[in-house]
Amino acid sequence: xxxxxxxxxxQAIADPTxxxxxxxxxxxxxxxxxxxxxxxxxxxxxxQQIKILSECGLxxxxxxxxxxxxxxxxxxxxxxxxxxxxxxxxxxxKLDNLEMYLHTLQKxxxxxxx
Length: 114
Hints:
- The structure is a single chain.
- By secondary structure, the protein is an alpha+beta fold.
- It folds into two domains: about 10-70, Winged helix-like DNA-binding domain superfamily/Winged helix DNA-binding domain (Arc Repressor Mutant, subunit A), CATH 1.10.10; about 75-114.
- About 65% of the residues lie in helices and about 10% in strands.
- It has helices at about 10-15, 15-25, 30-35, 45-55, 75-114, and strands at about 30, 60-65, 65-70.
- A three-stranded antiparallel beta sheet has the order 1-3-2.
- A hairpin with a 2-residue loop joins strand 2 (about 60-65) and strand 3 (about 65-70).
- It starts with 8 loop residues before the first helix and ends with a helix.
């Protein structure tokens, strides 16, 4: 993947390890070694996960002396939120229609018994 290619935020959050990294550094910025200590995988593997998060803009890496500090940037998640909201509205409307239909059936059933 070239340096100019940006990964998709959906791709970034699809992986459970990357979601855990986001959750971890959302609490406080951390260096790469501190992040890696929280996972049962090698530091290079964690670095690769962070690189993916960085490519989609969810993590910013700042050089502080000899350390690389990772900071979370949650703004790109708004794209995910908007996408989910579209489907939430869709399913809410479907469930509201189902509720009205079931209510109508119950009314008919009650009137049929009387």
